[in-house]
Design the sequence.
């Protein structure tokens, strides 16, 4: 220690001052940078699940269930694997975004001190919320990329059309992400309720959003679950983009519009909660 | 104690008028007034729950005031939060470090929140690592650091934006004596560089060491204001005689102390006799036939000031 007691650099460098106007414009990106630093720690896990999950799902469902379904000539005129592939991509996106927005947001307030420390800087609550959402996208992009690679590799999709799933996936991630964030940000204590999102929202939505079978297969009274499910809207768009599932222009606009609406309402509500919670 | 009086009178960098914060029916800060000058080391001294931290949060513009006025660097805290925080270095009570990140990353990540260029933040983080004496811990994860190291890292982090004002909420609470002295040494450096320091503390020695001027705060109100030495002069005597007569006998013995020293104070475990000459007071006590079990003569401290002002001890 004794050798380190003196230091020549001044503790405060008067030649450089912080500019809040720069922060007002770019602060959200600093929030993303922080999350990238955090993600580095579990990069290996991300890679393993990113590569593993599409392979397992496509093999399992295609080689097993697909054979059974295709015996009856597929669904909507395409092989079963083609039918479910866009929806599988979207359900993985939904799961990834929900995880990032559950533990990233709750942890930001309670475990990692991220938001509480950002609060001591010129960063605004809105920039925190947006930053987390962009960081979630950074996690979602490789997940989609691995899936698309598998789809092309297995000959399920044409490369260019597969690529069209990317914007749909990003839109879904933002919409579902903000919706999850809006709720999680209101949670003050972890009493196990955080896992409800996966158990009682993500999984049921996957089952009732026309992922494994067309939505109209369900009895009429269950179909509204799909209509309010961001996953169904994204899956329909994905099918339209990937293999030309027939959708009118009005339907496409409705699906996109619904996802944008969920994103906007979720963002508004999240930011409001962040603002209140961070004003001590 | 070597506390300078404020020689340079410049424009205040922080001004509060009738500053009030209420949480529901609880009034945490009850209409306080103060001014802090540039380059000054200013302290809020008071027990836990006095309203010190709430005041600090309002200065940091992270807590909206309920009433009154508060400006920092000429800006209203309720309307210019980001602008104000860009010029502040905040050391919160709980550190709020990202414990899973490395020491160096905690500095750089935080620096970016002030809109500073990445290359600058990197260079600055290295300098601050030296300032905080954490060079050897550069790539260590924060959760493995000692309390004193974490505190120094938090101070280094608070300096990354070259703040004009440093806010330190209970800077040495929970640290062992050695860690406290290292920290004080760092804060002296800041003082020497002319950084305005605003400190809350419930430690007398800390207030006496660090503060040019302080306010004693109790139940949300300011009960006294001045330099540590002037407060001691004004509210206490030069020396204090502490005598213990054994449990149960203190109050009885105190009844026979009238006329010795300026006044006395009976605590559960001892009696404090305030006198300019403690030895003389002790002699007088013995001459009256009172036979203390132990006795101690010491200089008056802010603890005595607080006891005088509130009738209570600062640390319960």
Sequence:
């Amino acid at each position: 220690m004794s050798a380190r007691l003196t230091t020549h650099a001044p503790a405060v460098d008067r030649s450089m001052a912080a500019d809040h106007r720069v922060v007002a414009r770019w602060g959200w990106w600093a929030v993303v940078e922080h999350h990238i630093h955090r993600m580095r720690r579990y990069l290996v896990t991300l890679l393993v699940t990113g590569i593993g999950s599409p392979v397992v799902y496509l093999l399992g469902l295609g080689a097993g269930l697909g054979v059974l379904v295709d015996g009856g000539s597929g669904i909507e005129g395409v092989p079963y694997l083609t039918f479910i592939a866009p929806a599988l991509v979207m359900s993985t996106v939904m799961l990834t975004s929900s995880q990032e927005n559950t533990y990233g947001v709750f942890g930001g307030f309670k475990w990692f001190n991220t938001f509480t420390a950002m609060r001591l800087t010129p960063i605004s609550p809105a920039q925190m919320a947006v930053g987390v959402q962009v960081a979630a996208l950074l996690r979602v992009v490789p997940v989609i990329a691995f899936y698309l690679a598998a789809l092309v590799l297995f000959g399920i999709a044409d490369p260019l059309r597969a690529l069209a799933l990317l914007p749909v996936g990003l839109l879904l991630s933002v919409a579902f992400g903000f919706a999850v964030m809006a709720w999680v940000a209101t949670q003050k204590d972890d009493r196990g309720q955080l896992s409800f999102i996966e158990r009682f929202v993500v999984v049921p939505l996957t089952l009732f959003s026309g992922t494994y079978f067309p939505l109209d297969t369900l009895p009429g009274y269950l179909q509204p679950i799909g209509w309010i499910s961001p996953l169904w809207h994204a899956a329909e768009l994905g099918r339209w983009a990937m293999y030309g599932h027939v959708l009118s222009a009005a339907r496409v606009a409705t699906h996109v519009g619904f996802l944008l609406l969920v994103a906007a309402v979720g963002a508004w509500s999240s930011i409001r909660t962040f603002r209140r919670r961070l004003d001590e | 104690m070597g506390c300078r009086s404020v020689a340079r009178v410049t424009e205040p960098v922080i001004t509060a008028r009738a500053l009030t914060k209420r949480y529901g029916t609880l009034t945490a800060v009850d209409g306080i007034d103060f001014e802090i000058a540039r380059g000054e080391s200013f302290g809020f001294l008071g027990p836990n729950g006095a309203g010190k931290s709430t005041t600090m949060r309002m200065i940091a513009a992270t807590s909206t005031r309920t009433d009154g006025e508060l400006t920092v660097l000429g800006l209203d805290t309720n309307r210019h939060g980001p602008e104000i925080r860009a010029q502040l270095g905040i050391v919160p009570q709980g550190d709020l470090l990202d414990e899973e990140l490395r020491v160096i990353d905690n500095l750089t990540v935080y620096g970016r929140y002030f809109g500073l260029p990445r290359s600058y933040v990197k260079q600055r983080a290295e300098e601050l690592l030296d300032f905080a004496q954490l060079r050897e811990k550069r790539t260590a994860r924060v959760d493995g650091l000692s309390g004193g190291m974490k505190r120094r890292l938090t101070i280094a982090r608070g300096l990354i934006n070259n703040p004009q004002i440093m806010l330190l909420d209970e800077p040495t609470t929970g640290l062992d004596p050695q860690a406290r002295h290292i920290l004080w040494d760092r804060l002296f450096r800041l003082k020497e560089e002319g950084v305005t320091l605003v400190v809350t503390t419930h430690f007398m020695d800390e207030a006496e060491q660090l503060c040019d001027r302080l306010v004693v705060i109790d139940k949300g109100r300011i009960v006294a204001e001045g330099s540590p030495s002037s407060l001691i002069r004004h509210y206490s005597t030069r020396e204090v005689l502490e005598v213990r007569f054994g449990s149960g006998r203190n109050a009885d013995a105190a009844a026979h102390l009238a006329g010795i020293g300026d006044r006395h104070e009976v605590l559960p475990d001892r009696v404090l006799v305030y006198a300019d000459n403690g030895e003389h007071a002790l002699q007088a006590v013995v001459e009256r036939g009172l036979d203390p079990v132990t006795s101690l003569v010491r200089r008056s401290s802010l603890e005595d000031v607080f006891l005088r002002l509130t009738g209570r001890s600062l640390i319960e």
In short: The two ends of chain B are 25 Å apart (CA to CA). Chain B touches chain A through 49 residues (CB under 8 Å). The longest helix of chain B spans residues 177-192.
